[in-house]
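re the bet — no i am not wrong, look at it urself. input seq straight from the record:
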Amino acid sequence: MAWRRYLLLFGLMLFSQFANAFEVSNGKSVDIDLTPYVLVTDQASNMSLKAVQALSSQQWQPQQDQLQLQLGAKGRWLYVKLTQAGSGKTDRFLELANPNVDQVRLYHTVNGELVQQLVLGDTLPFSKRPQAHANFLVPFEMQQGEQHEFWLALSTEGSSYLPLHLWSSTELLKREQSREIIKGFQLGILCAIGLFSLCMALITGSYTYGYYAGYVLFMALLVSCINGTGFQYLWPNYPLWQQKVLTVVIPLVVAFGALFTEKTLLLKYFSVPMLRICRALTAFCLLLAVVSFGFSQHVALIIELIVAVLICLTLAVMTVMQAISGNKLAQLYAFSSLGIIIGSLLTCFQYIGFIALPVNPQTPIMIGLTIEIVLKAIVLVIRYNDERKAKTRIQQEALEQAERIRKVREDALQMEAATNERLERMVQERTLELEFTLRELNEANQKLIEQAQVDSLTGVRNRASFEKRLQAEGRISRRQQTPLALMMLDIDHFKVINDTYGHLAGDDILKQVAFNLRENLKRPSDLVCRFGGEEFAIILPNTDAEGALVLAEMLRETIAQLEITWDNARVPLTVSIGVSAAIVASDDHIKRLLSEADKALYQAKGAGRNRVWAHQVSTDNPLS
């Protein structure tokens, strides 16, 4: 027996040479991704801890050098070693950031002595976890001089993606606040859209809204399964259902997506063969959801992910074909499907193990899902608007027919003098009613036209309004031979502001910049527009380059002097402005003038930002 003990000690010495401990700060704020410091080896999950500790260093590899995203891992061990820097006792949390692994056996040793042994995974009720958290949190204490080693035996039929993260309690609380807000917002939006569509389906009897409601609500359930929210709040005491829910929900999401595609693209009228294909795919997905109970989770997930990818591609090809053939809804629908297709492919390929990206495998499909849900909602609104217009047109035709009948009756009743006056009075009353209704419709239509030309966030004109106005002012400049000046204004480091203070702060800054620009343009003929993102465009009729540069410099200084605070912190704000001016000679000259202002803006940004730049061939003469 002695030789075995010496062999084990020799193995531990070899292992300690390649597994250097990561030194953890003793501060209150700790937020460390342990992936670069984790070693992995493919061994049987039921292997004893002593046998794993006795493995040679050649049998361990750094985690980031291996593809850890394939489905199913019946035998994989992870190892990480930590030490405490500084004095004092600190509380720490080890996070296993995949809520859908089946089983993880965790061994925690301190200075070589086993102090904690846990069995984690979604095969156990949620109440069995050390902490009530969607991911797996293991609390422990660290003191100076202690060497903490964690050995994890992973066995799962789902994704083997298992990143490790080390937290202090304060940083974990901060992260959880932001993450729960994001998760709640995303699930709230999905549920709100789904329930609204369901109500619309029940009220209007529309199959399109019903299929869209099913698609969005099952997608919300899928998202809650992926991020662990479903197991935490919906079925915490049913781990068996947790093992099967993904294999049921995925084909249902695809089935409702195929039905919604069929209804939205009106395949019943445009392409009967494509209609039959959609219904066949739907039936196949529903059958797959039922028979998935007879397969293991590993086999069912591989089959369903491959089927989901193939069906998404099939629907995309059908949508593109319809768009090419002139189906107006198919054109926007194809664009809306692009995000979810790309996101689904990237996520599925990561889970299957074809590719490895430096992001969480859930991230691509979440981004694609957000884009798709929003754009498909727009498609649904457009279709509803088209149907409303069709009904209005039918009603108008009915009114016109009624008017023709009225005229025939009037001609007939003119033969009777006694009734002629009464009929004429009735006609006048109806005419007044119609004129009043027409006037109201004209006023409503004018309001809609004005709303379509205004940017909803900043209140200034939008890009479509800018392009129409630019064409008009360009023609006036050419006809009257007066100069026309353009400004392109961009907020400096706007992405940094968004990343630092949040998108709400970015929206507030856009509003304040738009307000100051509008307040400092004194002439009624001057026009400020939101060109896109953080970029604004200004049209200055009858203004030469010198006058435009003076105004641009005044605008730049005014914005730089704004006192903007967010969460009691001052937000530094500067802008870069590109200026171009000329007497327009042709319609092409208008486009060139806009391009010159845009180039001048990029010259101003390239020269250091917070400056005004007039377009010129060389870039060595900025105004400021």
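see?? The longest strand covers residues 71-84. told u. also The longest helix spans residues 362-413. so pay up
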